[in-house]
Structures are given as structure tokens and as C-alpha cells.
Specification:
The complex is a heterodimer of chains A (323) and B (315). Chain A is of the alpha/beta class and 323 residues long. A seven-stranded mixed sheet of chain A has the order 3-2-4-5-7-6-12, with helices on both faces. In chain A, strands 9-11-10-13-14 form a five-stranded mixed sheet, with helices on both faces. In chain A, strand 2, helix 2 and strand 3 form a beta-alpha-beta unit. In chain A, helix 1 runs parallel beside helix 7, helix 3 packs parallel to helix 4 and helix 9 packs across helix 10. Chain B contains eleven helices and seven strands. A five-stranded parallel sheet of chain B has the order 1-2-3-7-6, with helices on both faces. A two-stranded antiparallel sheet of chain B has the order 4-5. In chain B, helix 1 packs across helix 2 and helix 5 runs parallel beside helix 6. The termini of chain B are far apart. With 315 residues, chain B is an alpha/beta fold. The longest helix of chain B is centred in the last third of the chain and has 24 residues. Classes of the chains: A alpha/beta (323), B alpha/beta (315). Bound molecules: thiamine diphosphate. Thiamine diphosphate (TPP) sits at the interface of chains B and A.
């Protein structure tokens, strides 16, 4: 299998979908040159400026116009530049896009994909570094996926583009240059299907995005202590593969949930409840969570490092649940 | 203004070297070439006037009188920085001189400034609030909402568009309908002026009358200062989107060279005086760098400080 990095895998998905379907177009700030993460690089040469649209700095108009196009026959893929800036188009996302099908009794379809580069790293400071996926899991009417590998990134983005509903794809910017095998053949990853990234028997670590890699590293370390860790990646948060997560928990009876976003009001809190409801009698220990602190992401390297959960935190958490 | 511009230029040139040497983390957006806007905008302001700035806000902070030491230490992420290492280059603030913050979210200042204007009005002082933003930023909704509100309320606000004709990789003409940002003022019934942003005196004069109008209770104004960004959008930007010629042509309009020629012609500056100013600026900048270098990094747990006023009984 060819090896690609996460960003190039997303680029491949866009290219494949734009070739397949002439209705698909990309829109965002600086996407012709693919600034800042290179995901849309080279698309303008192949598909022209009408289908790779550099927009002014006008987030509300970018997202709003994409909805207008989506409900009248096009298939937009919006690049949010940095997920933090989605706040500048929050009405469009939360009130217009999310509610369009439901509020009008199913008459309107809004097949729109929102690419959300997000996450901590490189001292980008409080306006460019936050993990905001929990905001959107809380909005009924949006599907939310969060890949951790290049193959999943490509497969989920393709599925998102073909989905008749609005889908947000959270792309951790710390993963863009991470490489992995990507199937030669066009492969779709269905929404709502978790993936076991590493099988194990003593404890289930449910992790998303960057924390999947951190959890795999933690699992390596814990294997040395004789603890067998199963790492499960939900891949999409809405819809959520409850059965897939529960199956793992029924095998291991212990759970750690690892995410980067702030602890309070987070996706992990929701997942903990899902597990508790589905497998309360199977649990041999309380669920332990790893998450970021409840602060905006600070700039200075030691402060940022403090705010970044990593493999060591997962190791500690696993030790606590197996004790 | 000449010393201010030199201070900004030298501080940013040093920041550029230090960034390249790995002493400064994160990203930096330099305003080299745009110093006349910062100096001209801030010269008519008092220390107790307020300023909101942008991601390219080093010059505005320095021109407003912010501490060079606090500035440089903040770029380094040190505990002694003006934001204790929490903000960094894109989120600088120095409230002691009314510099209420640079912003990583473009255009936000346009809606914050009318509220400052309201506070000034209700407190009955004669202060002024200024917000500086790029031409790209002027295409976001908050620009229109902020100008409308300020005009409606007749609050003492000056909106300054620092137009360097680029928004990251996107050229002004490909992103901005109508060509002129100053002309948008007419739609809201306030004065709009276009000035040569590489001419410090022109910026100063436009700003002086906008500030006078604001202090007199006559309401907001919009100034569009047309300038040139000499460097990339951020340090490390390969600038594939613009020609070498354009950058070099822009350098012919160096605002510092221009102001110096003007001052020499008017016999307000001679070579000896200029050398004294340069040496003083050099010493100040060196002092700031030394201060930043020798300051401690924040303790990791300091990440939890400053979120709220501390309640001992809760998290
Ligand atoms: C709301 C928002 N959208 C997008 C960005 C990303 N971004 C940062 S700077 C920039 C270009 C800004 O151009 P302009 O306003 O003209 O200022 P200049 O950089 O030219 O000084 C963009 C798109 C951002 N920081 N905030």
C-alpha cells in the first residue's frame, strides 16, 4: 500500500471526489495555494478557480453561501482555515445548516462538508489552537467525524462529501504530516463505525484524533508492564458506534477515555455516559478520563506543554483503572 | 514619530533574527514597511486613549508607548512578558497604555471599539478609541456592524484600515469589491479618508482631525492608510503569490527614509542628531532583548492562573 501523509490523503480524497462529481467544489480563504496546511494544494490547477474558490475573509458569507449552493444542487467543501474561526460563522453552522432539513420537515437537503483544521501545537496561541469538536456534538443536525490516520482521513472525507447531510470533519493540525498506509483503491470509511487500532484484553482506551497515536504509544509502554491495552477510535462522534465501543468494553471491563479538548462539557463526558449506560454491569472500575485543562490554549511553550495531554497521561490513567 | 518608526523597525528586525535563531516560538507577522501607519495613528493619541490592534500589531503596541521589555519578553513566551507568556505575538496587550489587545481573530476590534466609545461617552471623558485592521479584515461582517453602530451612537471611535493590498496570499482586487474601503464610510454617513500610509505626516494629519472630531463629540471616522508590507505574510512565508519586483518596488517607498528626508529638508534633523536617535533606539532594543533573554519562562502550572478571579472553593 502506498504511504501518504494525512494532509496528502485529504488532498487525494478531494481530488477523487471532484473528479467523480462535477457538483463538488471547494471554498475557503487562501485555498488556491493551499495555505496554511497544503490540503488544497494543486487542486486549482486541475479544477480551475470556479471549483477551487479563494474567498475574501468573510466566514459568515463563505459558510452561508455554501449552504445556499448546497440546498440548490451543488456539493461544497468548506475549508475553515482554523476551526477557531468557525465562531465567525456560528449562526450559519448552528442555526441554518444544522436545522435546515429538520425544521422544514425534511424538504431541504444540505450536503455540505466543513473541514475544520483544529488542535494544539507550535505555540499558535489562544485564537488558533483549541479543540472545539464538543461544541458541534451538542448541535443536533450536524454529523461530526474526527480521523486519526491518513487512511481514515481520506475515507471519512470522501464519505462526508457523498453524505446528503452536513458533515464536519475535524483535522488535527498536528497530524497533517503524520504518515500511514492508504489503500490504492478508492475506499470509503462509513460514518458511525469505530475502529480497533490495537487489540488488547485488560483495558479499553477510547481515543480521538491526536490522542489515538498518544494512546498507542502508551499501550506500547504498558505492554512492558504486562498490561494489554485495546485502543479504540470512534472515528465519527455523530453518528456514534455505540455497539462497537460497548463490544470492546465487554471484553476488557475497564475504560479510559482520552481526548485533547477541555475536560469540562466535553465529548469524553458524553462517551463516558454512553458506556455507563450500555455496559454498567460490565465495568470493573470507574471510567477514567484524560483531557485538556479548562483553559484557552496558552502561547508560551511550557504553558502549552502543560495544556497538552499526551501518552504519559494515558499511562497514568490506565494504571489507575487497572489497579 | 521618526524615533517611534525606527524603534518599531529595529525591534522587528531583531525579532526576525531571533525568530530565525529559534529564540521566539510560534508565528510572527512583521509590519516592516508599515511603520508610518503605526506612528501616524498613535502620535495624536494620549496615553489614556484606547487602541485595538491586529495579528500584525507589534508596531501599534510600540507606537502606543507599550513597554519594549514587556513586548520582547512576550514574544519569547517569558513570565515577564506583557501577557505573562499567555498571549505571544498575535495576542499582545498592554493595558497600562490603553493597548487593549492584538487579535488573532480578524476584525474583532471593529465591534469592540464602539463599546469602548460607549463607555467613554457614558463616563463623560474625552478619550478616544481606535481600532486598526487590515484590508482583508474589512471584508468581514463585524467591520460593517461596528462602523454602523459607532455612527449610530456617535461615539468617539476612529476606524483605521491598514491596507497593504494583501490578505495572506489573496490580492486586494480579488477580495474587495468597490476598490476603496474609505468610500464605505459614505454608506454610514461618516467621514472617510484615504491617505498614503507610507507618509507618516499624511497619516498623522488625517488621524489628528479624526481624533479632534471624536473628542468634540462629533462621532466616528474611517481612515484607509495605503501601505506596503515588505516581508511575507508571516516569517517563513515563501511569497509564491507575489513578484519580487513588487516587493522591491515597495521598498522604494520606505516610510523611514521618506520621513528622514523630509525632516532633513526642513532642517529639523541633521546627521549627528539622526545618529544619536539611532544609537538610543539601538540601546533600548538591545535592553529589551537582554531582558527577554535573561527572564525566566513561566512555571507550567501558571497555565491555570488568570482564567477567573480566584475562588478558593471551586476549580
Ligand atoms: C476571522 C479570521 N479569519 C481568518 C484568519 C486567518 N488570517 C490571518 S491573517 C489573514 C490575512 C489578513 O489580511 P489583512 O486583514 O489584509 O491584514 P494583513 O495581514 O495584510 O496585515 C488571514 C486570512 C483569522 N486570523 N481570523
Amino acid at each position: 500500500m502506498p504511504v501518504l501523509d494525512f494532509g496528502d490523503a485529504l488532498n487525494l480524497a478531494l481530488r477523487e471526489e471532484m473528479r467523480r462529481d462535477r457538483r463538488v467544489y471547494c471554498i475557503g480563504e487562501d485555498i488556491v495555494l493551499g495555505v496554511p496546511f497544503g490540503v488544497t494544494k494543486g487542486l486549482a490547477e486541475e479544477f480551475g478557480p470556479a471549483r477551487v474558490r479563494n474567498a475574501p475573509i468573510s466566514e459568515a458569507a463563505i459558510v452561508g453561501s455554501a449552504m445556499g449552493a448546497a440546498i440548490t444542487g451543488l456539493v461544497p467543501v468548506v475549508d475553515m482555515h482554523f476551526a477557531d474561526f468557525v465562531t465567525c460563522a456560528m449562526d450559519e453552522v448552528a442555526n441554518q445548516i444544522a436545522k435546515s432539513r429538520y425544521m422544514f420537515g425534511g424538504q431541504i437537503s444540505c450536503p455540505l462538508t466543513l473541514r475544520m483544521p483544529y488542535g494544539i501545537g507550535k505555540s499558535a496561541g489562544g485564537h488558533h489552537s483549541n479543540s472545539v469538536e464538543a461544541w458541534f456534538v451538542n448541535i443536533p443536525g450536524l454529523k461530526v467525524c474526527i480521523p486519526s490516520t491518513p487512511a481514515d482521513a481520506r475515507g471519512l472525507l470522501k464519505t462526508a462529501i457523498r453524505d446528503p447531510d452536513p458533515v464536519l470533519i475535524f483535522e488535527h493540525r498536528g497530524l497533517y504530516r503524520v504518515t500511514g498506509e492508504v489503500p490504492e483503491a478508492e475506499t470509503l470509511v462509513p460514518l458511525g463505525l469505530a475502529d480497533v487500532k490495537r487489540p488488547g484484553t485488560d483495558v479499553t482506551v477510547i481515543a480521538t484524533a491526536r490522542m489515538v497515536g498518544e494512546s498507542l504509544a502508551a499501550a506500547d509502554r504498558l505492554a512492558g508492564e504486562g498490561i494489554s491495552v485495546e485502543v479504540v477510535d470512534p472515528r465519527s462522534l455523530v453518528p456514534l458506534d455505540r455497539e462497537g465501543l460497548a463490544a470492546s468494553v465487554r471484553k476488557t471491563h475497564r475504560v479510559v477515555i482520552a481526548e485533547e479538548g477541555p475536560m469540562r462539557g466535553s465529548v469524553g463526558a458524553w462517551l463516558a455516559w454512553v458506556i455507563m449506560e450500555a455496559c454498567f454491569d460490565d465495568l470493573d472500575a470507574p471510567i477514567v478520563r484524560v483531557a485538556g485543562p479548562n483553559i484557552p490554549i496558552p502561547f508560551s511553550p511550557p504553558l502549552e506543554a502543560f495544556a497538552t495531554p499526551g501518552a504519559a497521561d494515558v499511562v497514568d490513567a490506565v494504571r489507575r483503572v487497572v489497579k | 514619530m521618526y524615533a517611534t518608526m525606527l524603534r518599531i523597525r529595529r525591534a522587528e528586525e531583531r525579532a526576525r533574527e531571533l525568530y530565525a535563531a529559534g529564540r521566539i516560538p510560534g508565528f510572527i507577522h512583521l509590519s516592516i514597511g508599515q511603520e508610518a501607519v503605526a506612528a501616524g495613528v498613535c502620535a495624536p493619541l494620549r496615553r489614556d486613549d484606547y487602541l485595538f490592534s491586529t495579528h500584525r500589531g507589534h508596531g501599534h503596541l510600540i507606537a502606543k508607548g507599550g513597554s519594549l521589555r514587556g513586548f520582547m519578553a512576550e514574544l519569547y513566551g517569558k513570565a515577564t512578558g506583557c501577557c505573562k507568556g499567555k498571549g505571544g505575538s498575535m495576542h499582545l496587550a498592554d493595558a497600562s497604555v490603553g493597548y487593549l489587545g492584538a487579535n488573532g481573530v480578524l476584525t474583532s476590534g471593529c465591534v469592540l471599539a464602539p463599546g469602548v466609545g460607549q463607555s467613554i461617552q457614558m463616563r463623560g471623558t474625552d478619550q478616544v478609541a481606535v481600532t486598526v485592521f487590515g484590508d482583508g479584515a474589512a471584508n468581514r461582517g463585524p467591520f460593517h456592524e461596528g462602523v454602523n453602530l459607532a455612527a449610530l451612537w456617535k461615539v468617539p471611535v476612529v476606524f483605521v484600515c491598514e491596507n497593504n493590498f494583501w490578505a495572506s496570499t489573496t490580492a486586494h482586487d480579488l477580495s474587495t469589491a468597490g476598490g476603496s474601503i474609505a468610500a464605505r464610510a459614505a454608506g454610514y454617513g461618516i467621514p472617510g479618508a484615504t491617505v498614503d500610509g507610507n507618509d507618516a505626516l499624511a497619516v498623522y494629519h488625517a488621524m489628528e482631525s479624526a481624533v479632534a472630531r471624536a473628542r468634540a463629540g462629533e462621532g466616528p471616522s474611517l481612515i484607509e492608510a495605503r501601505t506596503v508590507r515588505f516581508m511575507g505574510h508571516f516569517e517563513g512565508d515563501p511569497q509564491g503569490y507575489r513578484s519580487r519586483g513588487e516587493v522591491e518596488g515597495g521598498r522604494q517607498r520606505d516610510p523611514i527614509v521618506r520621513l528622514r528626508a523630509h525632516l532633513e529638508e526642513a532642517k529639523l534633523l541633521d546627521a549627528a542628531h539622526a545618529a544619536r536617535v539611532a544609537a538610543a533606539v539601538e540601546a533600548e532594543v538591545q535592553d529589551a532583548v537582554d531582558f527577554a533573554e535573561s527572564s525566566p519562562l513561566p512555571a507550567p502550572e501558571d497555565a491555570l492562573q488568570d482564567l477567573f478571579v480566584h475562588y478558593p472553593w471551586s476549580d
